[in-house]
Amino acid sequence: MSIPQPPRHFRQPPRHFPRRPRHSPHRPRYMPPPEEGVPRPPRYLPQPPERLHKVVEVHAAVDYRAMPRVYLETSFVSYLTAAPRASRDPIAAAHQQITIDWWSRRRADFELVVSQLVTDEIQQGNPTASEGRIEAIASLPRLQITDPAVALARTILARGLLPQRALPDALHIAVATVHQVDYLLTWNCKHIANVEVLSRIAPLCDELDLTLPIICTPEELLGVSDDQ
Question: What was the pLDDT predicted at 50?
Answer without folding.
Answer: 56
